[in-house]
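Pasting as-is:
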Amino acid sequence: MKQDFVYPLLAWYAANKRSLPWRDQKNAYYTWVSEIMLQQTRVEAVKPYFARFIAELPDVQALALCPEDKLMKLWEGLGYYNRVRNMQKAAIQVMEEHNCVLPASYEALLSLKGIGNYTAGAIASIAYGIPVPAVDGNVLRVISRLTENPGDIMKQSVRRQVEQELGEVIPKDRAGDFNQAMMEIGAMVCVPNGAPKCEECPIRSCCLSAIHGTVDMYPVKSGKKERTVQELTVLLIQDGALTALKKRPERGLLAGLYELPNIPGHLDQEETIQYVESLGLEPLHIESLGEAKHIFTHIEWRMIGYKIRVSSLTEPDIPEMLFVGRKKTAEELAVPSAFRAYAKHMHR
């Protein structure tokens, strides 16, 4: 890979970089938190989550010692909850092995739970100036177009190849700026959805796919596997003061989070009433909450929902269910965004 694109890219970045709360100061913890949050989530959406998280958990030790329910509540809405669980496990490692300071070593960062090549590269280069690449989807897209790389970017071998090539050209004195510039141009110019803004690109004269008119052919990306479709009936069971919630198993999808009770399949109103009665509850009124859909990486939930008013939730003993007031659900317990279409009715 030629180096001729490096300094035009850095000049563009210096003039056009966005001001971001995790970028405006060199803080390894801030870089770490932001990079985990930014996986699968847009920058603008992350900003309020980042501000809230840092206000409550300003450093590694605070994260390591945070109670689980509070941690899940702070992450509520970002999804992929295992990421923040792994962050806490890594924070405990850092507290015990590195005196509460994220290590200034790419290899040591890689040894932490939940930190892979990209995140380790981002922290090492941005916070500590270590000249190692940070290759995410944006960077893969930019490099595949820049070099007309025919490799499938979904393959680890292609990612490793790009990491090696970038490792040879990354400027040793501006490693953090270079990696952020690569991410920035991928997010702002060589965009993931829609046509790239080649007319705005500072490295167009170096880009083989722009020169040859083959931009639409790159990156090469294999198709995703079909998602498994699951049908669910979601129940919002309330007695006027309390709402029924259920804690999901500690392993698997949405592990350990609080959900609205749900049943496989699509039940009609009569079947739903019979199910609620089988729990030992007395239904007084049922209302349809309509259909909703939520897409995970490999699973798609197609849901219907009902709001059921029951006589009382103060005495029932139903395994794995708990009955909580509005304040607790709003302020303390994390209900996954998968149930957002129905959870929004909880406080009405």
